[in-house]
Amino acid sequence: MSALIALEDASVRFGAHTALTGVNFLLGAGERVMLVGANGSGKTTLLRLLHGQLPHSGQRHTRTDAKGREPTQAMVFQRPFLMRLSVWHNLLIALWLAGVPKTERATRAQSALERVGLARERDRPARVLSGGQQQRLALARAWAVTPEVLLLDEPTASLDPGAKREVEALIESFAHADGVAIVMSTHNLGQAKRLGTRVVYLDAGQVRVDLPTAMFFCHSLPEPAAQFVKGENPWAA
Amino acid sequence: MGGGFTDAAQTALALLWNFDASLGRVVALSLYVSGAACAIASVVGMALGALLAVARFPGRRVVVAVLNSLLALPSVVVGLVVYLLLSRAGPLGSLGILFTPTAMIVAQTLLVLPVVAALTRQLIADAWHGNGEQLRSMGARHVTAAGLLLLHERLALVTVLLTAFGRAISEVGAVMIVGGNIDGVTRVMTTTIALETSKGDLPLALGLGLVLLGVVGLLNALIAIVQRQRGAHDEARVAAGAGA
After folding, report:
1. What is the torsion angle, in degrees rounded to the nearest 10, for the CA atoms of residue B86, residue B88, residue B94 and residue B97?
2. CB contact set of A192 (below 8 Å; sequence gap of 6+)
3. Rounded CA separation B159/B142 (Å)
4. Which residue in A has a C-alpha nearest to residue B232's C-alpha?
5. What is the dihedral of CA B2, B7, B11, B13, to 10 degrees?
6. Average pLDDT of the residues in A162-183
7. What does DSSP say about strands A17-27 and A32-36: parallel, antiparallel, or unpaired?
8. In A, which residues are within 8 Å of B244 by CB distance?
């Protein structure tokens, strides 16, 4: 099987509420999948399901290597949880949790900080950083564990335009330079167009449209998706 | 009555002014017993509280409810239970520690353990609720997550610790029963106050009351400083967030 993660007829229920129904989804190496849809359409649930954090019905397969290990994954949340410690120690703890050998941690943490442009903030308390810097630290933390799959839940939703651009540029460079497969939820269709190779439109817990980016934005979509694209992007109408 | 109070207060201040050795011993023993009890209770209680916050097992709600009820445990009841355990006929009577400072430490540890565990559990449960998924996502299992959240909430835990110390140093029931209020051996501030009051030596009782108040006041000042630091920390965070 070549897909990094595959879902077959997967459904997720929270008590009486069905959050995802009958989802079929394949994530190939190097893909950049953008999840779009209204609030409550199931984007975050799909990310958590791909991450293997949710009980579900149906199948979830992952590609395993010769030693039977799953692809390394990292997830970046809309509001990253940073411990009341320095930037540096937040990185070291993430590397420790990911099982990186002690001798490698400092080198990896340092290059991650340089990668996201936070080397000068190394010894500052992580929680006094600005919103954009906190999200960059979260990306550094994710990048440091060298993931094959990076899951991002509206990573720029609470950022101002400047910080949004910085974080977007980093995500793009992770995808291009490191070949990380990305699944990202976003409300920003411009962002989906810029970053994605594929766009998945969710509505009421179901995957309604799953197309390559160029086709998603050019072709006539089924009704709810077409309306969503129009509504989210009125100037394109 | 008002004149009596003024006289007593004046004598009390004079007593404090000429702080003598026997008074010093009483104060020192109080600090030693309550400090040791809090040290033991904090190690056990914080671990217990944090694990209870992140673990999921059948009957957890009952355990939490019992723990929260134990917050209201009267100190005389703890004293009585420890007395029965340590008395010559009791199951731990062979230890021979009844009416020693060690017995007082045991009693106060049991008294403040539920305080530390319940407050820690609440604190860590809130942190876990908001951030548990991210910790799991990074690969932290239950015990690791509990440890990391304790580290994360360390400033708030200082407040928990100071609260527990305040409860220990100001209680009289438990230390009176298991310590026996023996002069020079197990006499602490609160038992001295109780004794001197019953003997009618109000100035000494009041003087000790003031010392106790001073110790607890110092604790409150410490709590305020810790909380101000936290406040400044969060303010800086908000300011940094707004400026971004």
Report:
1. 50
2. A34, A36, A186, A199, A213
3. 24
4. A128
5. 50
6. 90
7. unpaired
8. 130-133, 159-160, 163
B138 touches chain A (CB under 8 A): yes
Query: What pLDDT score does B45 carry?
Result: 97
Q: Which tens digits make up the pLDDT trace of A45-72?
A: 999 999 998 999 999 999 988 888 889 9
Cα–Cα distance for residue pair A153/A81, rounded to 1 Å: 13
Q: Is B129 on the interface with A (CB under 8 A)?
A: no
The alpha carbon of residue B217 is apart from the nearest alpha carbon of chain A, in Å, by 28
pLDDT value at residue B231: 67
Please give the pLDDT value at position B234. 59
- Per residue, what are the HEC states of chain B? CHHHHHHHHHHHHHHHHCCCHHHHHHHHHHHHHHHHHHHHHHHHHHHHHHHHHHCCCCCHHHHHHHHHHHCCCCHHHHHHHHHHHHCCCCCCHHHCCCCCHHHHHHHHHHHHHHHHHHHHHHHHHHHHHHHHHHHHHCCCCHHHHHHHHHHHCHHHHHHHHHHHHHHHHHCCHHHHHHHCCCCCCCCCHHHHHHHHHHHCCHHHHHHHHHHHHHHHHHHHHHHHHHHHHHHHHHHHHHHHHHHC
Q: What is the pLDDT of residue A2?
A: 73
With beta carbons less than 8 A apart as the criterion, state whether B148 and B135 touch: yes
**Spans of chain B below 50 pLDDT:** 1, 241-244
pTM of the model: 0.87
Q: What's the confidence (pLDDT) of residue A232?
A: 59
pLDDT confidence of residue A237: 41
Mean pLDDT of A26-39: 94
Say if residues A8 and A61 touch (Cβ distance below 8 Å): yes
B130 Cβ under 8 Å from any chain A Cβ: yes
Please state at what angle helix B21-54 crosses helix B101-137, rounded to 10 degrees: 30
CA A207 to mean position of chain CA atoms? 17
ipTM of the complex: 0.88
Closest CA to A160 of A195, A132, A194: A132
Residue A207 has pLDDT above 50, yes or no: yes
